[in-house]
Amino acid sequence: MGKRSIIPYGPQHPVLPEPIHIDLVIEDERIIEAIPSVGFIHRGLESLVDKRDFNQLVYVVERTCGICSFQHGMGYCEAVESVFGVEIPDRAKFLRTIWSEMSRIHSHLLWLGLLADGFGYENLFYQCWRIRERVLDLIELTTGGRVIFSVNKIGGVLKDIPEDQLRHILSELDAIEADLNVIKKTFIEDYTVQSRLRGIGILTREQAHDLGCAGPVARASGIKADMRKRGYDAYPHLDFEPIVSNAGDSYARCYCRLMEVFQSIDLIRQAIGKIPGESDLSVAIKGNPDGEAFFRCEQPRGEAVYYVKGSGKTFLDRFRVRTPTFANLPGLCEMLAGAELSDVGLLVITIDPCISCTER
Amino acid sequence: MAEVIAPENILEEIELSDLLHVVMTKKKEGLRLSQACAAYVDGKYELSYSFADDKTYQLTTLRVVIDVDAKVPSITEIVPQAIFYENEMKELFGVNIEMIALDYNNKLYRIEEEAPFGPKKEENNG
């Protein structure tokens, strides 16, 4: 048995996209145990329920994360709408779906770039982020924002996407898809990519299930679960199947996210093809929320759970969001156990960690 | 059109003494712990443990309502990933959870204020 020692890893480290600290118990170069620690950027957003009313809270909640801000705002709104028992107009449902899938594309492209950078393929990193810019431009065109969209309200959405912009989105998606096909070949077939990802950080189906993993991390381990199949927003009208791989390694996690970008493009095309004609974008909400509801949606990083509880007052009694990274941290620790020290940075990236979301 | 499964969320109120038994039952049924959280309402803690069925997309939430000084057994021996949820309940709300498999001792989020979401100090003093 080699000598055991503990290496403190993070919170500031060149390969870490966000501040997380991990105590790595190693024997020679192999990790025996990984103990994560967060808490460097805790903001206490959930505590603002007693300082901001339930309408104002939409803008607080979407600031949970700079990547999936839209879906945070949407998830909160849908939880509150469940408490009120209202159904938003069909066009608003389709608009939420289109913006959700745009968010997924830009989030996955951001991650693919970070992954490429993580295994030293800088040109691939540039290509991913170059394509992502086009998606951000579409988001800016339709919402006015690139990071925080502020188009959700309780009862619907605040902005419409006119017909000419919908046509522009379709033509841009064609160009984005053409660019993606070039990098797809590299991600799927390139020797460098495969040698750095295949067989690294394997998480079996049983482990992923027992550790409560969510989103692409779970689907890359063979769990066919995608919250969009629950049927919220316009997803009941769209044809898709969760993208699953059985390998459970880093390559599988890369494959699932890459293919989900193509899937999101397809979903936006379907949604634009089926979106109802121009109509009201929201329904009126009367009174204050009285009751409680859980709402789950599929964010780019996986299942997010929103819980709201109100007692007929302007201020909620409780708001809570369980983010996907929160669910994937135990899976990360399992992947790290047995891995080589040199793979730690890459494995942390493969769960697409968002510590800002996690700490809220 | 794709087949869509959208079952209702189920809320089961249980006694604290039944918590471990029911959690074990949910695990044996193959359900995944989707989330766990606490709320402090009307002088009591409401603990919610949500279990997800990834085949039917049904979400079942176990609800335990307890007094603020009640001792809650940790479910981490049954569901290991509950470590972070339970540490959060303990640190932010002051829920007295015993025997967490990895207890961060109120240092998960490194906050200065003690149990900011729980009972206020003046409430505790009567």
Please give a structural write-up.
The complex is a heterodimer of chains A (360) and B (126). Chain A is an alpha+beta fold and 360 residues long. Chain A has helices spanning 57-61, 69-84, 90-118, 122-143, 163-189, 191-197, 205-210, 215-219, 250-274, 324-336, 344-350, 355-359, and strands at residues 4-9, 21-27, 30-37, 152-153, 156-157, 290-299, 302-311, 318-322. In chain A, the strands form 3 sheets. A 3-stranded antiparallel β-sheet of chain A has the order 1-2-3. Chain A has a 3-stranded antiparallel β-sheet with strand order 6-7-8. A two-stranded antiparallel ribbon of chain A has the order 4-5. In chain A, strand 6 (290-299) and strand 7 (302-311) form a beta hairpin. The longest helix of chain A is centred in the first third of the chain and has 29 residues, at 90-118. The termini of chain B are far apart. The relative contact order of chain B is 0.18. Mean pLDDT of chain B is 84; it is low at 1-6. Chain B has helices spanning 19-28, 82-93, 121-124; strands at residues 10-13, 32-41, 44-53, 58-67, 71-73, 96-98. At the A-B interface, strand 6, strand 7, strand 8 and helix 10 of A face strand 2 and strand 3 of B.
**Mean pLDDT, all residues of chain B:** 84
Low-confidence stretches of chain A: none
Order of secondary-structure elements of chain B:
EHEEEEHEH
The H-and-E topology of chain A, N to C, reads as EEEHHHHEEHHHHHEEEHHH
- By DSSP (H or I, 4+ residues per run), the number of helices of chain A equals 12
N-to-C span of chain A: 41 Å
| Strands side by side in the biggest sheet of chain A | 1-2-3
CATH class of chain A: Mainly Alpha
CATH class descriptor name of chain B: Alpha Beta
Assigned CATH superfamily of chain A: Cytochrome-c3 Hydrogenase, chain B
**Which architecture of chain A would the CATH scheme give at its second level?**
Orthogonal Bundle
Shape of chain B: globular
Oligomeric state: heterodimer
Overall shape of chain A: it is globular
